[in-house]
């Protein structure tokens, strides 16, 4: 399906994403006034690239072709864009890895709480010393709480972690993408 909308580089087997820029500055976020090497990508450009990435299978390599309407070729600006592009996707990978680490910490914490609750349930249940209704509610609450914490840990591993790991794969693919410039005369 994606072959209808994107060009394919037959030599490399990669998918080409074409982007038209009026000038070099269109690549950058207009609100970011830091040096060109560390400036953010324009939000609409990032959104477009993410949309394209969702349509293209992860196993496919990418090439980004910028077509600039600026009549003057400026290799310095091209290199600044390439550097900014790589820095941006390196930073985004670091953010996603932090999210994965945070999720792993949550999984470990929730699993430990689940084990403690379930262990406490079995210890109190086997003692048969609880005769009040509130004691029984507490013991049953430990069992239910233990399974809820275990389910939440499992939910994070299966749903949230998968989302972050897929995003890291997409960001790596963007980082490895070949960047080319073309000019409209």
| Widest β-sheet, arrangement of strands | 1-2-3-4
**SS strand fraction:** 5-15%
Indicate the percent of residues in helices.
55-70%
Rounded radius of gyration (Å): 26 Å
N/C terminus separation: 32 Å
Low-confidence stretches: none
Q: DSSP helix count?
A: 3
pLDDT averaged over residues: 88
Category by helix and strand content: alpha/beta
Shape: elongated
The main β sheet shows up as: 4 strands, mixed
Instruction: Compute the number of strand runs.
Output: 4
- How do the SSEs run, as a string of H and E? EEHEHHE
What would you note in describing this structure?
This protein is of the alpha/beta class. It is built from 3 helices and 4 strands; from the N terminus they run ββαβααβ. Helix 1 links the parallel strand 2 and strand 3. The mean pLDDT is 88.
Q: In brief, what are we looking at here?
A:
With 185 residues, the protein is an alpha/beta fold.
How is the secondary structure organized here?
Blueprint: E1 7-9, E2 14-21, H1 43-55, E3 62-68, H2 75-127, H3 133-176, E4 178-183
Parallel strand pairs: 2-3, 3-4
Antiparallel strand pairs: 1-2
Helix pairs in contact: 2-3
Short descriptors:
185 residues, alpha/beta
């Amino acid at each position: 399906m994606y072959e209808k909308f994107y060009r394919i580089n037959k030599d490399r087997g990669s998918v080409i994403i074409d982007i038209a820029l009026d000038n070099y500055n269109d690549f950058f976020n207009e609100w970011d006034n830091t040096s060109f090497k560390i400036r953010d990508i324009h939000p609409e450009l990032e959104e477009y690239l993410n949309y394209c990435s969702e349509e293209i299978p992860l196993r496919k390599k990418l090439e980004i072709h910028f077509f600039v309407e600026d009549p003057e070729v400026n290799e310095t600006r091209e290199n600044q864009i390439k550097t900014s592009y790589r820095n941006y996707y390196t930073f985004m990978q670091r953010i996603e890895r932090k999210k994965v680490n945070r999720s792993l910490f949550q999984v470990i914490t929730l699993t430990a709480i689940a084990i403690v609750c379930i262990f406490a349930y079995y210890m109190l249940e086997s003692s048969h010393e609880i005769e009040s209704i509130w004691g029984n509610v507490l013991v049953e609450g430990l069992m239910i709480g233990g399974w809820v914490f275990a389910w939440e840990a499992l939910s994070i591993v299966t749903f949230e972690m998968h989302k972050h790991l897929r995003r890291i794969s997409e960001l790596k693919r963007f980082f490895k993408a070949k960047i080319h410039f073309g000019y409209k005369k």
